[in-house]
Q: What sequence folds into this?
């Protein structure tokens, strides 16, 4: 079975479970899965039930694909994503984005919990992603290309849609939500970064750092989707923070910021 056939099989299974056709996809990071509580007419499909879907085992990730409505928009929301550090291949990390493409998704919203490098940030801040720096040494498009998905050499000059950023800024203004904007750097994890690495990333122009989001961003652009990204700054990065990192603390801060982020995303979707 080719990769395309495998993705098609997954998409057909999802379509068999829900009546409506989603056009917006959302990937929810650690502690940020509560957006699905705002969705109506939900169909919850565990990843384990979808043929070909990877399985995540990270705390704070529920492991469901949820199809439902927010306002007039039909959404496909991922409660939990797949990370390179779990041992997944890049095609597995980005597999759900390919499935979303065949489901009819045109725009993708990616969220994550990450560390702040920009010294004007504080834990709990929300940051609009304006660009990324890929420090993995891996690209999610490496391998044989299938033209049915996209071109061999996709453009990344607008990895995060300026149109969607503008809509999000307008939505934030309506709700009086403050936010930052910045460049997101990815490194592999699963250990947290060293102080020396953070000094290097800061020199390169990164405002925040995490272990996700970029592979999906690359794949979604390749697949012709518009992408919008929001990061929740859950801690300051090593060498800037005054205490050691724990995943429990990351999830706690993400949960605290979740209501603000969810309200923002909901308003953005209502304005689509």
A:
């Amino acid at each position: 079975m080719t990769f395309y056939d495998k993705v098609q099989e997954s998409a057909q299974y999802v379509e068999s479970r829900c009546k409506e056709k989603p056009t917006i996809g959302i990937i929810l990071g650690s502690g940020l899965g509560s957006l699905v509580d705002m969705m109506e007419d939900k169909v919850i499909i565990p990843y384990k039930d979808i043929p070909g879907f990877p399985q995540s085992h990270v705390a704070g990730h529920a492991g469901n694909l949820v199809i439902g409505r927010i306002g007039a928009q039909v959404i496909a929301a991922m409660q939990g994503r797949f990370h390179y550090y779990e041992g997944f291949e890049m095609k597995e990390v980005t597999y759900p984005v390919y499935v979303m493409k065949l489901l009819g998704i045109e725009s993708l919203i990616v969220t994550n919990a990450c560390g702040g490098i920009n010294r004007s940030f504080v834990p709990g801040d929300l940051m609009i992603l304006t660009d990324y720096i890929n420090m993995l040494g891996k690209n999610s498009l490496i391998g044989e290309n299938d033209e049915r998905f996209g071109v061999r050499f996709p453009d990344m000059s607008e990895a995060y849609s300026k149109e969607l950023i503008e809509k999000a800024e307008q939505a934030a203004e309506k709700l009086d939500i403050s936010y930052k904007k910045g460049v997101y750097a990815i490194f592999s994890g699963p250990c947290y970064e060293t102080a020396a690495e953070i000094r290097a990333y800061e020199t390169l122009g990164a405002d925040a750092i995490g272990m996700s989001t970029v592979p999906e961003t690359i794949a979604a652009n390749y697949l012709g989707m518009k992408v919008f990204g929001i990061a929740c700054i859950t801690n300051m990065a090593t060498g800037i923070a005054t205490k050691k990192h724990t995943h429990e603390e990351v999830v706690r801060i993400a949960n605290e910021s979740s209501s603000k982020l969810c309200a923002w995303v909901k308003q953005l979707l209502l304005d689509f």
